[in-house]
Amino acid sequence: MRWLSDPLLVVEHLTMRFGGLVAVNDLSFQVGRGDITALIGPNGAGKTTVFNCVTGFYKPTEGRLALARAGAVDRDAIEALTRSSARQAQSGAAELFLLERMPGHLIAHQAKVARTFQNIRLFQGMTVLENIMVAHHNLLMRASGMTVLGLLGAPHYRATEAWAVERAKYWLDKIGLLDRADDPAGELPYGAQRRLEIARAMCTDPVLLCLDEPAAGLNPRESLELNALLNTIRDEHGVSILLIEHDMSVVMQISDHVVVLDYGTKISDGTPVEVRNDPKVIAAYLGVADEEELAHVEAEIHA
Amino acid sequence: MDASADSKGGAYVFKEAMIAALITLALCTPIIMFRTEADQNTSKLELIFRLTPVLVFMALAFAGRLVVLALRMRPARVKAVPSVAPPSGIRAFFTYVIGPLGLLFLFAYPVIVVWWLGPSGALKWMDSYGIQILIYVMLGWGLNIVVGLAGLLDLGYVAFYAVGAYAYTLLATGFGLSFWICLPIAGVLAALWGMILGFPVLRLRGDYLAIVTLAFGEIIRTILINWTAFSGGTAGISSIPKITFFGLVFADRENSFDEYFGMDYSPIHGKLFLYYVILGLALITNLVTLRLRRLPIGRAWEALREDEIACRSLGINTTTTKLTAFALGAFFAGLAGSFFAVRQGFVSPESFTFNESATILAIVVLGGMGSQIGVALAAVALIGGFEMLRELGWLKTFMVDYFGMTNFDPAQYRGLLFGLAMVVMMVVRPRGFVSTRSPSIFLTRRTAVSGDLVKEGHG
Ligand SMILES: Nc1ncnc2c1ncn2[C@@H]1O[C@H](COP(=O)(O)OP(=O)(O)OP(=O)(O)O)[C@@H](O)[C@H]1O
Ligand SMILES: [Mg+2]
Fold first, then answer.
1. A47: enclosing H helix or E strand
2. Of residues B48 and B95, which shows the higher confidence score?
3. Rounded to a whole number, what is the distance in angstroms from the first to the last CA of chain B?
């Protein structure tokens, strides 16, 4: 129950409307620090929309998204920050961010939330290594003195770049792409592209990694490798993971906490076992609509 | 259609060729068949009916279509799997041989020309070819940052060229500042204008960006035409101070470069100096671009061209990144513009029409977006080729001697030939001269990225 005792991200009353369509409706949930949290739900439930709100690609219609980087969440501090017009505050050891007030690139850069995309978004015409180097952009920009020192070939910049290359090698080794470092990303097989996108996101030094259907299109062996990779990311690098997943076996195996969405509304929230046994979830997945049938299904389950 | 052409055989080919000929007839009827000419004596307009050229064009279309179909009918060659890179021979040639060789040639060019044609014979080759082409090489390289690397379609690049030219002109004529002081100021002013334009515009994408930049180019030109007090209007500004060499002018008078070095006056000295100045400026543009490509900012530009949304998810501020590309491109255009003014000695809005923007963009596209060598080659081919077409005197004598076409003027066909060459080029090499992308960093081996994978950007 880390998501209750030590949350990293607190989502409250998140609502996202597109014209008349309510994609996410008054959604509240918490992501535990160090947890792998799964966001599941049928097609069109609004999962990707939640991601887009968290990572700043959409500005939520309503709601608060508070992220506490390093250090426990302090409710009072969140309230105080909300009342102020600032988007970030320091309270004790914790750095607090209100994501709904930040543009996308600052969420990645300062609040340290990284993400991948449902339809892979690699820089196809750049090599695998270049893709990872781009993820080091802000670090290298600073080291290159906003380009000026880099243009002059300052040793500090060269050292930082070498360090970035070393880290790229580490991650490429982890995802088994070290020997393809100099190939164009667009030529990698599908599964490798998914892994590369994750490695690229990791190189922005995130505290929260949001993965949009990372196992989609993977074969069973690749799927297992992905599970191992995600566990490494969480255990060795201390990065919390929020992932959208359709494959129930993956969800049940690796997640600590599951949130279920249907038609933009949260219908269940708990440990994998709790959620699996929740009749509302089963109904949603079986496509049962009305109350009567729901009762029927429930009865069957408990029979 | 290609596969079935075999089975259909001769009749099919003949029919296709006939159709091509008929289309040509339809096209030629309004354009070529009738011509009005004023009668010399009465100065009345007369309608002249010209059947022969129409028939010639129809025959050409017929024959051309036959050839194309015949070529298609040959058994298709087995296409090699498009692997990582095209044959490494060509690539290696482009990257490792043509660059240094070209550079050597550029430095030796004036020497060769002067040695060959003598000081006065070389003037044209220095000016219309050497300097003229190098200006466009520099402009091409500058625009390449914006279009080729960052993937922002800029149709108003000439505006910054104009800002640079007028900046030098006004500072030199108004305040008597020397070219070397004005050069950086002109660059900075152009970059400033780049940012002023960039701020509101860079949130637009693709076609919208193209249209707004196009409009911006026209606005600058219109201002130059109408604000007569400031820019001299359509008449332009003449007698702009010439370039100096540490204060020494290139002229036939006291205290000149020639006199100081104890030489007899010759106009070629000034041209030589101008040549090396623009060569230096162009090479600086190239060098800076090549270095920037290997820095985070350059990688961010290319990443932006590939996928803007992914860039944002990695914490890249896309607005400032676009803005730097825009400003830097404008900066180099400003430098080139100020050089243009000092070389020409005269500026007017006429020199900064949309046509210029289109030419520079054509150079970038023809060269292969993002490739420095490609852009340089394209500038040579386009600008040099266009100049060459002026010199078709031999073709005229040939036509007169053998076909008796006394009023044939090849210079009038310049545009046609030029357009034809562009079409052929885009069919043969749709990705430009250099269609591969060379990675900015590599671990073990430098593999060229095939152009099919590289995006062109969406603004
Ligand atoms: N930018 C948008 N404009 C309008 N409607 C949108 C937009 N983005 C999403 N929607 C709508 O919001 C609803 C939720 O979409 P979303 O992509 O979040 O679903 P999802 O849970 O990710 O589904 P899937 O499992 O298919 O990926 C859908 O009805 C979708 O059409
Ligand atoms: Mg989705």
1. helix A47-54
2. B48
3. 36
CATH class of B106-428: mainly alpha
Chain A residues within 8 Å of chain B (Cβ atoms): 55-57, 104-106, 108-109, 114-115, 117, 121-127, 129-130, 133-138, 140-141, 144, 147, 150-151, 165, 169, 181-184, 186-187, 200-201, 204
Give the residue on A whose Cα is nearest the Cα of B444: A182
Pairing of strands B244-245, A21-32: unpaired
Asked whether the predicted pLDDT for residue B86 surpasses 70, the reply is no
Per-residue pLDDT of A19-63, as tens digits, reads 888 888 889 999 988 889 999 888 888 899 999 999 989 999 988
pLDDT of A134 above 90: yes
B191, B197, B201, B207 alpha-carbon torsion, rounded to 10°: -80
The residue among B208 and B249 whose pLDDT is bigger is: B208
pLDDT on residue A170: 92
Please list the residue range(s) of chain B that carry CATH number 1.10.3470.
106-428
3-state secondary structure chain B: CHHHHHHHHHHHHHHHHHHHHHHHHHHHHHHHHEEEEECCCCCCEEEEECCHHHHHHHHHHHHHHHHHHHHHHCCCCCCCCCCCCCCHHHHHHHHHHHHHHHHHHHHHHHHHHHHHHHHHHHHHHHHHHHHHHHHHHHHHHHHHHHHHHCCCCCCCCHHHHHHHHHHHHHHHHHHCCCHHHHHHHHHHHHHHHHHHHHHHHCCCCHHHHHHHHHHHHHHHHHHHHHCHHHHCHHHCECCCCCCEECCEECCCCCCEHHHHCCCCCCHHHHHHHHHHHHHHHHHHHHHHHHHHHCCHHHHHHHHHHHCHHHHHHCCCCHHHHHHHHHHHHHHHHHHHHHHHHHHHCCECHHHHCHHHHHHHHHHHHHHCCCCHHHHHHHHHHHHHHHHHHHHCHHHHHHHHHHHCCCCCCHHHHHHHHHHHHHHHHHHHCCCCCCCEECCCCCCCCCCCEECCCCCCCCC
Q: What is the pLDDT of residue A208?
A: 93
The pLDDT of residue B5 is above 60: no
- Report the residue of A116, A127, A171, A179 to disrupt the B interface, i.e. the one with the largest count of B CBs within 10 Å: A127
User: Which of chain B's residues have a Cβ under 8 Å away from the Cβ of A119?
Assistant: none
Q: What secondary structure letter does DSSP report for A102?
A: S
Question: Whose Cα sits closest to atom 1 in ligand 1?
Answer: A18
**Which of A55, A133, A137 has its CB closest to that of B316?**
A137
- Predicted confidence (pLDDT) at residue B411 exceeds the cutoff of 70: no
Pairing of strands A257-262, B436-437: unpaired
What is the mean pLDDT of the segment spanning B76-98?
A: 53
Q: How far is B201 from chain A (nearest CA, A)?
A: 19
> Are A282 and A260 in contact, with CB atoms under 8 Å apart?
no
Using a 6 Å cutoff on CB, does residue A42 contact ligand 1?
Answer: no
Which ligand has an atom closest to residue A61 CA? 1
In this prediction the pTM is 0.82
Q: How far is the CA of A55 from the centre of ligand 2 (A)?
A: 14
Q: Percentage of chain B surpassing pLDDT 90?
A: 18
Distance from the alpha carbon of residue A100 to the mean position of ligand 2, in angstroms: 20
- Give me ligand 1 centre to Cα B3, in Å: 43
Question: Distances from the Cα of B434 to the Cαs of B24, B220, B370, in angstroms?
Answer: 34, 33, 9
Q: Is residue B194 over pLDDT 60?
A: yes
Cα of A6 vs centre of ligand 1, distance in Å, is: 30
